[in-house]
Amino acid sequence: MDTRPRQALPSCSRPPAAAIVLAYDTTRTLPDGRRFFTEDLSAAAQNMLLAAEALGYAACWVQGGLDVGNGTEVIKLPDRYRALIMICLGRAAAADARREKRPLADMLHWQAFGGRD
């Protein structure tokens, strides 16, 4: 098995079991010229993160707007594609160490930013 792709990912603290790269085709647009690749790929990444968690895996969205030199050349991504998101997937190295969440009331704003009632 070729381990170069996993070892070429400096954003991951240790080589993951898998590195998922989400990329878009720079030649594709809607007829009016608009593109929705950021929204589409972000939604796909969120679904992957939720699914990984539900299946007992550790997953981390480590980077957006990947540049050559962060593993994309190792996967031989064709020139017309641009990597937007990378997700490291594997088993957690340690037990789940979740942070205490802030109360929803501290983050929720009614009618306008700062509105609390």
Task: Domain count, please report it.
Answer: 1
- By DSSP, the count of extended strands is 3
CATH superfamily: NADH Oxidase
Structural class: alpha+beta
CATH topology name, in short, is NADH Oxidase
**Which CATH class applies here?**
Alpha Beta
Quick structural summary:
The chain is α+β, with helices and mostly antiparallel strands. The protein has three helices and three strands, in the order H-E-H-E-E-H.
Task: Describe the structure in your own words.
The chain has helices spanning 4-7, 37-54, 104-107, and strands at 18-25, 58-64, 81-90. With 117 residues, it is an alpha+beta fold. It has one domain (4-107): NADH Oxidase, CATH 3.40.109. The termini are far apart. Mean pLDDT is 78; it is low at 5-11.
Describe the protein's topology:
Layout: H1 4-7, E1 18-25, H2 37-54, E2 58-64, E3 81-90, H3 104-107
Antiparallel strand pairs: 1-3, 2-3
Task: Give descriptors for this structure.
single chain; 117 residues; alpha+beta; NADH Oxidase; 3-stranded antiparallel beta sheet; 3 helices
